[in-house]
């Protein structure tokens, strides 16, 4: 699953571009199309754009390039999640995307276009959501503009549908670019900063028996914690033998599935239980030796 969200100050283009042929832009729709949130399917792109524009005008956002008019959402499914060969695959992909959009953007107009990749044939969905609520004219904010929220909602929908999530290596273009940089660094220096910070965090976790002591142990390894959230931490590499690596930052879940708070706490708790078991065994051995000595 690859996903993304991006704001646009040209809603007309956001609606038309994914829904029409790129080589011959004459407004003819391609791919499987859906619309909702009060939109009436007129059968042509201009009719859809006009309905979005009425809301922009009412909300004072009719001028292109001045304010955010739409949010563009992308969902790309791996063959393991939705095979393009399965019956009604396009409708299946559209159902998932539509459920996510309805939960995240109640009262907002939207369009969905499901297409197959040119090379591999895998399915992806382009969603275009009006930035203004049709009734209240309030703009999207907070969780409605968050990639992390979008990702959580997509994964929740896949899980509810009994689909095993194929997280792959990268979720976004940003992560893909980061991976290319890391690969280049590794080729030049023999190792990467992500390898180094991962090793340091792992070592700190192995040496921690109380969760309250974790940050201190991370600091000893040359790793700091920039931000702590309920579901994720952001780490920074404070010290490195490679000067260019110092100051690099990464979210825990991008380094390892073990580097999220719940997993880290479980590792630390296990360390504590194991230390007690080892301690009890030592006491038992000492008592056993004392009895034999008698």
CATH C-level class of the largest domain is Alpha Beta
Number of domains: 2
The termini sit apart by 67 Å
Number of helices: 9
Helical residue percent band: 40-55%
Overall pLDDT confidence: 86
Shape: elongated
Q: Kindly provide the radius of gyration, computed on alpha-carbon positions and rounded to a whole number of angstroms.
A: 25 Å
Strand element count: 8
* CATH topology title of the largest domain: BirA Bifunctional Protein, domain 2
**Main beta sheet:** 5 strands, antiparallel
| Secondary structural class | alpha+beta
The order of strands across the largest sheet is 1-3-5-4-2
Note down, in words, how this protein is organized.
- This protein is of the alpha+beta class.
- The protein folds into two domains: 2-160, BirA Bifunctional Protein, domain 2, CATH 3.30.930.30; 184-281, no CATH class.
- It has helices spanning 11-19, 45-58, 89-104, 147-160, 173-189, 193-206, 214-220, 252-255, 261-293, and strands at 2-8, 32-36, 70-76, 110-116, 123-130, 223-228, 233-237, 249-251.
- The chain is elongated and about 85 Å long.
- The relative contact order is 0.10.
Topology:
Elements: E1 2-8, H1 11-19, E2 32-36, H2 45-58, E3 70-76, H3 89-104, E4 110-116, E5 123-130, H4 147-160, H5 173-189, H6 193-206, H7 214-220, E6 223-228, E7 233-237, E8 249-251, H8 252-255, H9 261-293
Antiparallel strand pairs: 1-3, 2-4, 3-5, 4-5, 6-7, 7-8
Helix pairs in contact: 1-2, 3-4, 6-7
